[in-house]
TrEMBL record:
Keywords per UniProt: Oxidoreductase
Chain ranges passing through the membrane: none
The keyword NADP appears for this protein: no
GO cellular component, one term: cytosol
Name of the protein this chain belongs to: Pyridoxamine 5'-phosphate oxidase
Keyword Oxidoreductase recorded: yes
Domain Pyridoxamine 5'-phosphate oxidase N-terminal: 4-105
A molecular function GO annotation: coenzyme F420 binding
Residues in the signal sequence: none
Pfam families (UniProt xref): PNPOx_N
Length: 110
């Protein structure tokens, strides 16, 4: 299992960092999370973020977007394969879920 760290910006501009599971697909990095999660609200307000892979040096400036949980079936299959059968779309525990797509930013000021 691979872990990463996403940093989003709170309303006051201070950073919020979370350890996350992720998959890579279609030139982007994908996360799955509860729609009520604070990082989702951060991204909806400000798409600027950074992402670092645990155990690697440095972080990449990224642009984040929120996608419907069922919009990328291949991404959901990758989560299931990479994380021991985990169903990233299962809303039973945390309520409705979304995908976060991270793409490298050409220019981001944090």
């Amino acid at each position: 299992m691979r872990h990463g760290w996403i940093t989003t910006l709170r309303r006051d501009g201070s950073p919020r960092t979370s350890r996350v599971w992720f998959v890579e697909s279609g030139g982007g990095i994908w996360l799955a999370t509860a729609e009520a999660n604070r990082k989702v609200a951060d991204i909806r307000r400000d798409a600027r973020s950074t992402f670092a892979i645990e155990g690697c040096h440095g972080a990449q400036a990224m642009t984040a977007s929120i996608e419907p949980i069922d919009s990328e079936l291949g991404v959901l299959a990758s989560f299931k394969r990479d994380y021991d059968g985990w169903d990233a779309a299962d809303s039973a525990v945390d309520g409705p879920r979304v995908l976060i797509r991270l793409t490298p930013a050409s220019h981001v000021s944090l």
